[in-house]
Amino acid sequence: MAEYETPEFYPVPFPDGLPTIELQRLSLARLMNDDVDQARRLFEICTREGFFYLDLTDHPKGLKLLHGAHSVHRVGQEVFKVPMAEKYKFEPRASYETGLLDTGYKELGLDSEGNCNKLELLNISQAGFFSGLEDYTLPSWLAPQEALFRSTLQTANVIHNVILAILERGLALPTGAFTSLHRLVDRSGDFLRILHYPAPKDGKPHAHPPTPAHRDAVSVALLFCWQGGLQITDSTAPVDHTVEEPEDTWFFVPPLPGHVIVNLGLVMEVLSGNVLRAGKHRVVTPPGPQGLHDRLSVLISARPEENTPMRALTSPKIPQKNPEDDPSGGEEVLSAKEWGIQQVLKTVHNIRRQNNEPLSQ
Ligand SMILES: O=C(O)CCC(=O)C(=O)O
Ligand SMILES: [Fe+2]
């Protein structure tokens, strides 16, 4: 068995016979070695489904990230056991309701005893550690993991930027057009997130997906998971949730050992004038007997520096809006921070609506 394999994270195999999608597999080593064909495939995927598997086992940076994610998984197995009252003390930023969900604890569903029964998140802020602009202190039950979180965020930032550099070349943008907006030290909403989906107590799948259909309000997301549950859709239903995607348009993306699932976020749609596409996805209760086990995932996402104007960049490959087509004189351009808060709030409200909970809590 290869040293990066972690069979203990896979309590039950992914069941056969389910609708699954075979995402393309790209190689980190080939992307990092400027392999032209591999870069072309990456660009094409990002103009279509916006989801792919990235093999991390063929490059030292990839192996480093993989080991980091495994260690974070082990941390996740322990830290969610901390009493709820302690977890609530690790607060999200106090802007609007949720801020950018880049730091702090958040649960999305409680049982009658006040314990989380659906989904809880721990967010660790990259800017908190690296921007030098804040005094970022983790609660005592997370503080021993600071070095692990720092090194995992740092390695992920390198890989985010490998992908962003390929996308800026594909769009014929000047070198640095994307990467200079995603520096490790920027003030941004970048985060490392541990997600915990407790297994339903009655053993039956949740009536509603614990994470409903959405696209991430980020630039690039790196998702590690070990249980099934992640699904993507080929439905063209609008993302405003006025129309539900038909059930038969959802396909499972099974976890693949040694690989991270990469998905492009909505920021890249905006900056590329919709040439690049963010992948719509959701997370349902893990299928079959996997549903009897808690699900943990680790998500490491890059966002642009918080003052970045959220509008299309200029390039011959990016269709430019003609101001004469817009009698209102153009929409207000939000900063990455304002825009991100709006997007996160939409997703959180959608979860609450689905759970029949009041919208502000
Ligand atoms: O837990 C997962 O597998 C995905 C979570 C997700 O989509 C998100 O937090 O945006
Ligand atoms: Fe997501």
From TrEMBL:
SUPFAM superfamilies assigned to the protein according to its UniProt record, in alphabetical order: Clavaminate synthase-like
UniProt domain Fe2OG dioxygenase: residue ranges: 188-306
InterPro entries: IPNS-like_FE2OG_OXY (IPR044861), IPNS-like_sf (IPR027443), Iron_ascorbate_oxido_reductase (IPR050231), Oxoglu/Fe-dep_dioxygenase_dom (IPR005123)
UniProt keyword terms in alphabetical order: Iron, Metal-binding, Oxidoreductase
UniProt keyword annotation of Oxidoreductase present: yes
Pfam families attached to this UniProt entry: 2OG-FeII_Oxy
Top-rank taxon, per record: Eukaryota
One annotated GO molecular function: metal ion binding
Gene3D superfamilies hit by this protein: B-lactam Antibiotic, Isopenicillin N Synthase, Chain
UniProt KW NAD keyword: no
Region: Disordered, residue numbers: 303-336
PANTHER family registered for this protein in UniProt: 2-OXOGLUTARATE (2OG) AND FE(II)-DEPENDENT OXYGENASE SUPERFAMILY PROTEIN-RELATED (PTHR47990)
Family the UniProt entry places it in: Belongs to the iron/ascorbate-dependent oxidoreductase family.
Name this protein carries in UniProt: Clavaminate synthase-like protein
